[in-house]
Structure formats: structure tokens, C-alpha cells
Amino acid sequence: SYFILWGPFGDRADELAEVVGAERASVTVLYGPRYFAPLRYLALFFRTLFLLAQKRPDVVYAQNPPVFCPLTCLLYCRVFGARLLVDHHSIWSVKTLGGRSPLSKGIAFLERLVAGAAEANTAPHSLWARMLVKMGARGVLVYHDFVPRNTRIRDEALRREMGEGEVLAVASHGGNPLERLDVEAAAVGRERGAGVSLVVSGPREKLERRFAALSLPPNVRYAGFLKREVYESLKASADFAVNITDEPYTLSHVLFEFAASSLPVVSSKEEAVEELFGDSLLYADSTVEDVAEKVRLLSSGPKRAEWAARVRRKYEELAKLHEYEVLALRRLLGS
To answer: How far apart are CA 292 and CA 311, in angstroms?
Structure first.
């Protein structure tokens, strides 16, 4: 079997490929600028067909978005009689394109076509799953992200290098324009007197300009895209995390990372987040005042310990859920 995504990286893709025992292929051409999109998708179409013709897999697991990736794989499957599964990381026509424009409606038509033609469809949370069912998708399975427990230990030297004061918060973002970097920075900036500092990681090509325009407070630092070992140590060394976003239908992968590090989290209250994480997260509106209030609460050692205990209990639940979903996915592939 062969797992294909049109992008340079993807934690979810890595995990799904490992679970189903598939070879993983990241197919990229002219990755990044939107104005290259028509040329990029055309090049990816031919590149993907070439790879599939070379490998001749009997099962193809493709990721949407963009929908053109599973659509290309569907063409191969029709010609060579292979099975097609689609992982809908999100529903592109709804999340990115809004669902109302002519372009969005065209993409929605293609997503319905792919979801209905695929033998099975996976989604990262139940909101997308319910939409897929309404779109006529077959074999819909919710498969949540999961992150193994972080085994790193607290690194005092790293804490001193990354932050100032006695309390270190961490955030990680991918670069979506609706991520509220401004609110996080301003809220933690207000708590400098309480000894709180914030370190934010993420890709420079998407975040550096945004942070440069914010005039960050002295106790907030943008660290760029960190190497994996440094990033894991940072999470193990932090006191709590912050994740504020206005993205609709979002269940951010970093919430699973923070849970794996037993970090209390100040989080946006999205429906998909609350449905899975319940009362293990400290929810805040996307306002500086509300986020600062929650940050102030977690600057207290006893309160942090209380919320960390909730996170540890939730992580145990997530681990059991993950075991069930792995078995369900493998049964689906074996059917």
C-alpha cells in the first residue's frame, strides 16, 4: 500500500502510513506560493501518476486537501483496479474556501466525487466525519491524531536560554492567518511582572514576518522552526502551553503534543476541541484580557499542578481511544 500527500511534511500522514504499513510519499513541486498553484497542481498530477505507475500499489491512501491528490489517485485506481482510501485532513471547500464561492462549490463537487468513490474515508474529528457522511462518503471512520508520551526530562539550561523569569509557556503554530499570535503575545506580555515568558516555534517562511510586525514584548520570543530534539525538550521543560486560534473546525495537532508532555493548555474553545478534550483544557476567548487571565491562573504552581493532573488523566483516555481506532482502521483495510 502507498500513502500519498501533496506536501513536504505531515505528522498525521506519518502516523497513518505507519499504522497501515504503507510506504509514505510526500510529493512536492513549487511548494508554497499560491500564485504557483495551477502550475503546481498540474505538475503534481503527472508526478503522482508516474510514481503510482512505477510502484503499482494495490491500495492507495491519499490525503485531502488538496482534493486533486485523491482525485489523481482515483484515476490510477480506476485504471489498475486498486483500492482507494482518502484521509480528509480537513474538508477543503469548507475550511479554506468558506463553502459559498463558485470556486468552493466546484471543489465541494470534487470532494463529494472522491469521498463517494473511495472505499473508505478517515477524518481527524467527528465534525468532519459527519460532513463526509452528508456528502455521501462511504466507510467513514474518525481517526484522531495521537502523540506518544514525551520521555524527555526538564532541561533547566534550555529554560534559561529560551525564556526569562520563573514560568515558561510554549506555543507552536503552522502559519494559518487565523492563528492569534497577536493575542498570545500581548496576553503574556502583560504577565511579565509575574515572571511569565513565552516561546513560540513554527516555520520562518510563514511566521517570521508576522512576528516582526508585532513588536513583541521582552518576555515573548519567536524561536523559529526548532529541530525535533530541541522542540521535544522545550515541551518537556515548559510549565504550560498556549494555543489560541480562530480557525473553524480545528482540532490542532499541537494539543496532542502538549497532552503527551502533560502540559496544561490555555486553548480556544472550538467545538471539535471541547468534544474530545472536555474539561482538561483551560478555555479562553480570543481576547487579550481573557487569555491574560488564564495565563495568570497558570502562573501559580498549585493551579498548574491541578491542571497538569487533568491533562494526564485525559492522555490516558486518548491512549485507550487510539488503540481502539488503530484496530478499527486495520479492520477497515482488511475488509
So the answer is: 20
Long-range CB contact pairs, 27-36, < 8 A, 24+ = 27/51, 27/69, 31/7, 32/205
Question: pLDDT-based confidence at 35, cuts 50/70/90?
Answer: low
Residue in the block written with cell 466525519? 129
Three-state secondary structure call for residue 219? coil
Q: Is the preceding peptide bond at 66 cis, omega within 30 degrees of 0? A: yes
pTM: 0.90
Inter-residue contact 102 to 293 (CB < 8 Å): no
Cα 219 to the chain's mean position, in Å?
A: 26
Give the CA angle between residues 195, 199, 201 to the nearest 5°: 170
Residue 301 CA from chain centroid, whole number: 29
- What region does 224 belong to: left with phi over 0, alpha with psi -120 to 50, or beta? left
* DSSP 8-state secondary structure symbol assigned to residue 268: E
**What pLDDT score was predicted for residue 161?**
94
75 exposure class (CB count in 10 Å sphere: 0-12, 13-18, 19+):
middle
User: What CA–CA distance (Å, rounded) separates 235 from 103?
Assistant: 40
In this structure, what C-alpha cell is assigned to residue 236? 518537556
Do 27 and 8 contact (CB within 8 A), yes or no? Answer: no
Q: Which of 247, 268, 243 is nearest to 258 (CA)?
A: 243
Contact 188, 169 (CB under 8 A): yes
Q: Which range is most confident: 5-14, 93-102, 300-309?
A: 300-309
All three cell numbers of 108: 465541494
- E strands in the chain: 2-5, 23-26, 59-64, 83-88, 120-123, 140-142, 167-172, 196-201, 220-224, 240-243, 265-268, 282-284
| Spatial CA neighbour of 125 closest among 301, 298, 261, 249 | 249
Query: Cβ neighbours of residue 130 under 8 Å, at least 6 residues apart?
Result: none
